[in-house]
Amino acid sequence: MLNRRRLLGLSLAVATTLSFGAVVPAEAFTLQPYDAAAVDAAIKSGRPVVVHVYAGWCLQCHAQASILKRLSAAGRYEDIAFFRVDYDKQKDVVKALDVPRSTLIAFRGGKEVDRMSWGTSEASVVAVLDAAG
């Protein structure tokens, strides 16, 4: 029979399990703010690099960012350096890259190997990341 003490103990055990058992995995990669010198150095090193041109108000950008976050939490693509261009604040970079917002650009071996604009499916994002990695 459940009395108050047992019910309280059971509730405490469930709450403890839920709060400590729901461990959120650490992200495998971090989107760094776009810095021309850092991006250039990463590309020249031959390291895989992905640049995401992002606007905070852009729905496609949010969809791409959500996919990137999910892939990061799954521990994929940790060897890629990720950089985010702020579409609204870094117009000179956007112009130099010659891209619209909501664009992913992949670099491998010191050169651009793929780019995709407006894609919001996981397959379209993964294709760019796979090209880099």
TrEMBL record:
N-terminal signal peptide: 1-21
Entry keyword Isomerase: yes
GO molecular function: isomerase activity
Family annotation (InterPro entries): TAT_signal, Thioredoxin-like_sf, Thioredoxin_domain
Entry keyword Signal: yes
Thioredoxin domain residues: 20-133
UniProt KW keywords: Isomerase, Signal
GO biological-process terms attached to the record: cell redox homeostasis
Name used for this protein in its record: Thiol-disulfide isomerase or thioredoxin
Organism from which the protein derives: Kaistia soli DSM 19436
